[in-house]
UniProtKB/TrEMBL annotation:
Keywords: Oxidoreductase
Source taxonomy: Bacteria, Bacillati, Bacillota, Bacilli, Bacillales
Organism: Paenibacillus plantiphilus
Gene Ontology terms for molecular function: oxidoreductase activity
Name of the protein described by the UniProt record: Oxidoreductase YtbE
UniProt domain NADP-dependent oxidoreductase: residue ranges: 31-266
């Protein structure tokens, strides 16, 4: 089981990806973003997740560059993810979107590039472009986000390269059991976005009970639960003390009974869009 913040999963193409990272959804460009990225790297994070639609790739890149300079780490020691947005889901437009993201980030390559949403009728052309980027060595791994089972089945019918990652909404109110089983069967690594359900679970009595038993916060219990399910997780925070606290999940382990009790909180409840009805 995952024992430290630099521990990494081995994806099916052999690329290693940290189990734990920083998400920057809805963090605006500016000093707060740069500071958050730097704080995460200073506290041992090695994975940063952004996206074109977040509008903050420039600040993420600045934070990375400043952190590398201050810590002496190399670019190769970090794992950087971005995503192509729905409006760019075509072959040429996806290739162009990738180059735009690289330019904004100020990087020579990405470790992981994802299709952000399975926009009907467009993601297959985008995937061909992703395969080209991968074949040309411009990205170390390619994957998808918010794909349900039928989207994955449809994509894999024609794909030359199987997605290495599926990043989806995952938390104790949405445990994605069937999707997790499908991804495990096909060796596609599941990754959680919104693991803390945007803070909506912090008052849940069961989680508070388990947290008290382990002398941990509810957030730490949820993030540990992610890891024990074999799900990569990328909690978002801009506050340095919270960034550090979120990552303090490697010195305890939930019992199988506690994991099952947390699983029982499932209500198939989303805080984000339903992938079958999201058409932006």
């Amino acid at each position: 089981m995952t024992t430290n913040l630099q521990a990494a999963a081995t994806l099916h193409n052999g690329t290693t990806m940290p189990w734990f990272g920083l998400g920057v959804f809805k963090v605006e460009e500016g000093a707060e973003l740069v500071s958050a990225v730097k704080a995460a790297i200073k506290h041992g994070y090695r994975s940063i997740d952004t996206a074109a639609i977040y509008g903050n790739e420039h600040g993420v890149g600045q934070g990375i560059r400043e952190a590398l300079e201050e810590t002496g780490l190399s670019r190769e020691q970090l794992f950087v993810t971005s995503k192509v947005w729905n409006s760019d889901l075509g072959y040429e437009s996806t290739l162009a979107a990738y180059e735009t993201s690289l330019q904004k980030l100020g990087l020579d390559y990405l470790d992981l590039y994802l299709i952000h949403w399975p926009k009907k009728g467009l993601y297959k052309e985008a995937w061909k472009a992703m395969e080209t980027l991968y074949a040309d060595g411009k990205v170390k791994a390619i994957g998808v986000s918010n794909f349900q089972i039928h989207h994955l089945e449809d994509l894999m019918k024609d794909a030359k390269v199987k997605p290495v990652v599926n990043q989806v909404e995952f938390h104790p109110r949405l445990i994605q059991q069937e999707l997790r089983a499908f991804c495990k069967k096909h060796d596609i690594q599941l990754e959680a976005w919104s693991p803390l359900m945007q803070g909506q679970l912090l008052d849940e009595p069961l989680l508070q009970e388990i947290a008290a038993k382990h002398n941990k916060t509810v957030a730490q219990v949820i993030l540990r639960w992610d890891l024990q399910h074999g799900v990569i997780t990328i909690p978002k925070s801009t506050k340095e003390h919270r960034i550090s606290e979120n990552a303090d999940v490697f010195d305890f382990e939930l019992t199988s009974d506690e994991v099952a009790r947390i699983d029982s909180l499932n209500q198939n409840l989303r805080v984000g869009p339903d992938p079958d009805n999201f058409d932006f």
